[in-house]
Design a protein that fits this description.
By secondary structure, the chain is mainly beta. The protein has one helix and eight strands.
């Protein structure tokens, strides 16, 4: 069964791990509420992407290695407060290289 996620805010992060493998993931955030606060999730590696032109904006569907799909819109491509903090913490690692990239620069997972 495919799980679909529609984050409030999102970015694509390109990761190069200590073995030299490069792949992209979605770093997603949902606003939450006063009672529950925001939440975030990082996808498994992106294996495919499709685009749908909706006139004023584009919708993207990112298919991930786990079987999940992330349905996003171009006007919500941004880091939220929570995901900015997560990305900052991840960037402190010496074992991986992480950068935020544009949709056009996605590297699809081709591993096992």
């Amino acid at each position: 069964m495919t799980k679909e996620y529609t984050p409030d805010k999102w970015e694509i992060i390109k990761i190069t791990d200590e073995e030299g493998e490069t792949y992209c993931k979605i770093l997603a955030e949902w606003g939450g509420s006063f009672m529950y606060g925001s939440s975030w999730k990082m996808s498994s590696p992106i294996v495919a992407m499709s685009t749908l032109d909706k006139g004023k904006y584009k919708e993207y569907c990112f298919e991930c290695l786990s079987g999940s799909n992330y349905i996003t819109t171009d006007y919500m491509k941004m880091l939220g407060v929570t995901t900015a903090g997560i990305l900052n913490k991840m960037s402190e690692s010496d074992k991986v290289s992480i950068e935020v990239i544009n949709v056009e620069d996605v590297v699809f997972w081709e591993g096992e």
